[in-house]
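agent> call fold_tool(seq_1)
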Amino acid sequence: MVTVVTGAAGMLGSRLVERLRADGHDVRGVDLRPAPTVTLVGDVRDPAAMAAAAAGADALVHCAAALPSYPADEIRSIIVGGTTNVLDAAAAARVPRVVHVSSTAVYGLPTVVPTPESYPRSPVDTYSRAKAAAEEVAERHRAGGMCVAVLRPKTFLGPGRMGLFAMLFEWAEEGRNFPVLGRGDVRIQMFAVEDLVDAVVTVLGAPADAANDTYNLAAAEFGTLREDFQAVLDAAGHGKRVVSVPARPALLALKGLQSMKLSPVYGRLLHKLMADSYVSIDRARERLGFEPRQSNRDAILATYAWWRTQKTLTSTSKGRTSRDPWRQGALSAARVFF
């Protein structure tokens, strides 16, 4: 089976390529960056490159995307323009099955938890609007007769993930307490990357009528932010604690720092940290028979264990991928208070 994977050098794409190869697939990994999992160096925004990638394929998994930290025009061109090119190429090549990796960001800041797939797309920023628009592209192709699975994972993590988690890991390793807004009792669902890979493989092998649908994907077991962050501090072994900071003043300060580009914590994330954020995974259980194996705590502790072996990566990265730590900016100075 010839399977195309875009974003094949990324955290998700590279693991998926390795898994599919192990399962006997002939995999064409596509990415801008050369890597052992990449067989075709190309940009998803290049129609000719995507046409070459899709030719003769039996399935295509679209993992390539931008991060919320990218400039707005780049987010739109990669997520919307790239998805359009990839799916147009798949349609022209008559690829029988496409898996589009989207995000629960399309819900914006939902007022219903657990949030079902039927909840309307309500994007609130450039990134979530681009993700919602890319889903509309996928749905147009589905309406035209293509089998298109749309997967909406929560924030996924595991070995290879940096981003904002690197800040928690660094402070834990240094023997510092770690702050949460307010009491830290909000429940934030995440997802292990290994479970996401399993979900993609499940969809690739599912009957067409089951695959041709939209699915939330997330951990079945998850606690509060305080509990998940405390698990990392406990693993660090310094006896430090998660400490509450007054929510409103901290929120105003973080918004101000973000507007001055002195903090990596973007607006939608700030709001997510203040309210429960979790989705229903009943549809994936019932239609695909998919059951996540790892809890939030399993995933975050596995990521921390990996990070402890990779600390030399943190100083020179440019924050272009989820494998890179975010630059803490003014937040780095705040560590002296903890």
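agent> call fold_tool(seq_2)
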Amino acid sequence: MILHLYFARKTLMALATVAGILCTIALMIEMIEQIRIFGPAELSLGTLFYLSVLRIPYTLYKIFPIVMVISTLVLFLGLARSSELVVTRAAGRSAMRALKAPLLVAFLMGVLVVAVLNPLVSATSRKFDQLKTEYLEEKSQIFSVSDEGLWLRQGDENGQIVVRASQSNLDGSTLFDVTFLGFSIDGAPEFRLEAGSARLEPGVWKIKNAKRWPLAEGGNPEALSETLDEFDLPTTLTLDEIHDTFSTPSAVPIWEIPSFINRLEKAGFSARSYKMWLQSELALPLTLVAMMLIGAGFTMRHTRFGNTASLVVTALLLAFAFFFLRNFASILGENGEIPIVLAAWAPPVAVILAALALLLHLEDG
């Protein structure tokens, strides 16, 4: 038990060291990137630093499998140089038994990353996007899906228009049972428009079977209302913007994804990318275990046998290959080429089995 606790502590120390170094490097890179992005806004150094810090959780989250494999290499190379693995084997502990504590730490770290870091990434990413829109004075465009349907908001120098629709088609180009609320630049309501359908075309909403109530002229809006068979309403929204917004599942905390998927499908959108993202996140603990096994398979040997550098490079190459295989499988799953569950869970399970076979062959075979 004491030996397992010792290996677990060494694993955590290696993880903290590698994550700290990579976060420091990422912070410096982000500072340069924010200076490039926000150069016209002439922000202070403190504000740029704050914006860079907001991006660090996202960066760490994306590269955490790589952090795990590098930490594994640091851990077992250190244990091999100090001959601690030799002493462990001499005490009757096999390589597989010595791996129990590090693998448990990797699995629990994956659970912690998904449960805690994932919501943190969502919160910091939304805050960064909000500040970016504010500092660069970009057009304010917000998209959301609720139990009442789909909500869009577009804004420019002339004011804002809020759009609510009960449903849409799969690509979001046509909205059904739609309401448009127009506001002036100072927030005063200008008009309300309800329609059976509205199709988004370049620069305009093509609206059919509509009724329009003017709200800025005073008097009785119902008396001044008009019925329109067809009506063109200018818009700054594009179909690509809608697609980009609903194709970023990382902006939604993992605890909210199941209900968000339900609302998205109810609104008429395809939620396949969100389902793929959810399964990939649930499989992250196994992914980290697979990364650790890849690193352990090439470094749980004494350095006196030589070829350490070659084995480290091989482990890193295989880890990157697995990283890209996982992402490629996710793309196939999002596009419907393979089942989502297979795309999310097959790569880590396959790598775990292959790495265990390698370890059994090299260490106990």
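agent> summarizing second result for user.
The beta strands are 142-146, 149-156, 159-168, 174-183, 189-201, 204-214, 226-234. The first helix runs from residue 2 to 37.
agent> awaiting next instruction.
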